[in-house]
Amino acid sequence: MQTLSPAAIPLQARIGQARSWADLELLCEHIDAAYQRGELDPSSADELSALVAATALKVPEQPSIPAEALLGREPEINTRQAA
C-alpha cells in the first residue's frame, strides 16, 4: 500500500468499519467528493476505491426479501386472461 494523503486516513478507517453495501456506496460517494474538492490525489482515490472493492467481497449482500419471508410461501399464479 502506498502512502495515503492525510485526507484519506479517516476514509480508510471507515471502509474497514463498513458492514453493508450501502455503507460502501456512501463511502464511494465520499471518496469521489473528496477527490473533486482536491482533498485526495488520484493515487489515494484509486487506492481507496480498490479497498472498497476488496471490502465488498467480504460484506454480505443484503437480499431485498429476507429468506425467512420466502419459506413456506405458495407461488403466486396469475389466473387473469390477457385482454
Report what the structure shows.
With 83 residues, the protein is mainly alpha-helical. It has a domain at 9-60. The protein is 54% helix and 0% strand. The protein is built from four helices and no strands. It has helices at residues 8-17, 21-36, 42-56, 67-70. α1 runs parallel beside α3. The radius of gyration is 20 Å and the shape is elongated. The model has no long low-confidence stretch (mean pLDDT 82).
Summary of the model, kept short:
With 83 residues, the protein is mainly α. It has 4 helices and no strands.
Approximately how much helix is present in the residues? 40-55%
Mean pLDDT across the residues is: 82
The coarse overall form would be: elongated
- Total count of helical runs of at least 4 residues: 4
Question: Which runs of at least 5 residues are low in confidence (pLDDT < 50)?
Answer: none
Distance between the termini: 62 Å
Let me know the number of strands.
0
The largest β sheet comes out as: none
Residue fraction in strands:
under 5%
Which structural class is indicated by helix and strand composition? mainly alpha
What letter string, H or E per element, gives the SSE order?
HHHH
Round the Cα radius of gyration to an integer and report it: 20 Å
Detail the topology: elements first, then pairings.
Elements: H1 8-17, H2 21-36, H3 42-56, H4 67-70
